[in-house]
TrEMBL record:
Keywords of the record: Aminotransferase, Pyridoxal phosphate, Transferase
Domain spans labelled Aminotransferase class I/classII large: 80-463
Matches recorded under InterPro entries: Aminotransferase_I/II_large, Kynurenine-oxoglutarate_AT, NHTrfase_class1_PyrdxlP-BS, PyrdxlP-dep_Trfase, PyrdxlP-dep_Trfase_major, PyrdxlP-dep_Trfase_small
Protein name according to UniProt: Aminotransferase class I and II
CDD domains named in the record: AAT_like
Keyword Transferase: yes
GO molecular function, one term: transaminase activity
Native species: Myxozyma melibiosi
PROSITE patterns listed in its UniProt record: AA_TRANSFER_CLASS_1 (PS00105)
Cofactor: pyridoxal 5'-phosphate
Family classification: Belongs to the class-I pyridoxal-phosphate-dependent aminotransferase family.
Keyword Heme: no
């Protein structure tokens, strides 16, 4: 402040050398203050208004749970355990780490990469996907590398959506889909997956979460431009069956709809997995397949993703990607390329071992639900578990903050209570639903098992503290 730079006695003389706007005055303390002059109509300062597409968004669940966890840690006698967000508590495989480290010594890897991605990575992706595609993939025209799968999907929506175009999304959905669709001017049309019946009393398979095809077909209109599929699915763990994909694919072909197939968990499935792009030549032309190095190699911080599809589709995704971020970081592209080349070698069992390790993690972790008498959805893919907490009894007079009460759903209250009382972070799945469909999910909580075995064992011990709060049958 000026008053701290000049003696107070110099205030009067100071004004002779300063051109002071009429909206300013010198106070008795010698500091400058801003005031509204009623006589000359000077308006108070206000920031320009942001876009309603951004300003209208509610506080996201990740901020809510992380802030609650940080606050709770101050009063808890043990460290917070985070089974909420899907980040890993361990490193990528050694061959991936070494490849990324080596890339930093390559001059070209410290400079811009081609906007569609490094040639080495696009060639490696083509080679990795060709066995399941059953055809050659043109690495030059049918592959684009993006800053994570999320930016890749945003590029796809930006490349194809005009104002008012509709995109069909199944609920529950990955929350980033919604803003990614709306920012380019698209309109989201929701189709809820139908939950299993009687799952309060029995553990169910993720295959029992089904598509209501009458509802789906009724949502298709002349403005429908795209449909989003997530298989294996977050948070349900559902792997869409071949029959389901064929029915969805027929609707897409009959109505000339682009299929955005989010397959970031495609290396982590425990039952038969089908790529919708492989079902027919017509579907291959309409499908954009999304992949992720973060999910494939347990490296979510690398932010390397990709889209594979017909050259006529990819060129528009690539054009949007160029304007959004131009290119992806070079060292980790190269690290991903070398890691893929290594992982697909016949003698390398990384992908098979990865699946087996998650089968073991899920089996060991899920035993706690049987112990507590809670039911859950047994996933066929991915690393999330939806658990039915309808038997959890929270004290009626428990003090919840306003932002939790404002959500109006039981799962947000349960999430907050678990953080505060046992130091365990989970995610309330109503965040992945429209408010009018929240009743379908508010009895569940989502847990991520992408952690070390020791970390999961600590979580099991914390969950045992819930026994006094579980309502008996």
């Amino acid at each position: 402040m000026i008053s701290k730079l000049f003696p107070r006695t110099f205030d009067a003389r100071l004004t002779r050398f300063l051109t002071i706007p009429q909206s300013f005055s010198l106070t008795n303390s010698g500091s400058l203050s801003i005031y509204r002059s009623m006589s000359n109509g000077v308006k108070p300062f206000s920031y320009p208004k942001p876009s309603p597409k951004i300003a209208g968004q509610a506080k996201d669940v990740w901020s809510i749970v992380n802030e609650a966890a940080a606050e709770a840690q101050n009063s808890l006698p043990f460290p917070i355990l985070n089974l909420g967000q899907g980040f890993f508590s361990y490193n990528p495989p050694d061959f991936a780490i070494k490849a990324a480290q080596a890339a930093l010594d390559d001059v070209s890897c410290n400079q811009y990469s081609p906007t569609r991605g490094r040639i080495s990575l696009r060639k490696a992706l083509a080679a990795a996907y060709e066995p399941t595609y059953g055809r050659k993939i043109d690495w030059d025209t049918e592959v684009v590398v993006t800053s994570g799968a999320n930016e890749g999907m945003f590029s796809a929506f930006t490349g194809f959506l005009s104002e008012g175009d509709e995109v069909i999304v199944f609920e529950p959905f990955f929350d980033q889909y919604i803003s990614n669709i709306e920012l380019p001017g698209g309109k989201v049309v929701y189709v809820p997956l139908v939950p299993p019946s009687n799952d309060d009393t029995r553990t169910v398979s993720s295959t029992e979460w089904t598509v209501d095809f009458d509802d789906l077909e009724s949502k298709i209109s002349p403005r429908t431009k795209m449909i989003v599929i997530n298989s294996p699915h977050n948070p349900v763990g559902k792997v869409f069956s071949r029959e389901e994909l064929e029915r969805i694919g027929k609707l897409a072909v009959d109505n000339n709809i682009i299929v955005l197939s989010d397959e970031v968990y495609d290396r982590l499935y425990y039952s038969e997995f089908t790529r919708i792009a492989t079902l027919s030549p017509e579907l291959q032309k309409l499908t954009l397949t999304v992949g992720s190095a973060g999910k494939t190699f347990s490296a979510t911080g690398w932010r390397v993703g990709w889209l594979i599809g017909d050259a006529e589709l990819i060129k528009y995704v690539a054009a949007a990607h160029t304007r959004i971020c131009f290119c992806v970081n070079s060292p980790l592209q190269e690290g991903t390329a070398v890691a893929l080349q290594e992982a697909i070698k016949p003698e390398n069992t990384f992908f098979e071992d990865h699946v087996e390790s998650y089968k073991r993690k899920l089996k060991n972790f899920n035993r706690i639900w049987d112990e507590l008498g809670l039911t859950y959805t047994d996933p066929d893919g991915g690393y999330f578990v939806l658990v039915n907490f309808s038997k959890l009894q929270i004290p009626e007079d428990y003090d919840f903050p306003e932002e939790i009460l404002a959500r109006g759903t039981r799962d947000f209250k349960m999430t907050y209570w678990l953080i505060r009382e046992i130091g365990l972070v989970t995610i309330p799945p109503t965040e992945f639903y429209l408010p009018e469909h929240a009743h379908l999910a508010e009895k569940y909580l989502r847990f991520a098992v992408c952690k070390t075995d020791d970390y999961l064992e600590q979580a099991v011990e914390r969950l045992r503290l819930l026994k006094p709060y579980i309502k008996s049958d």
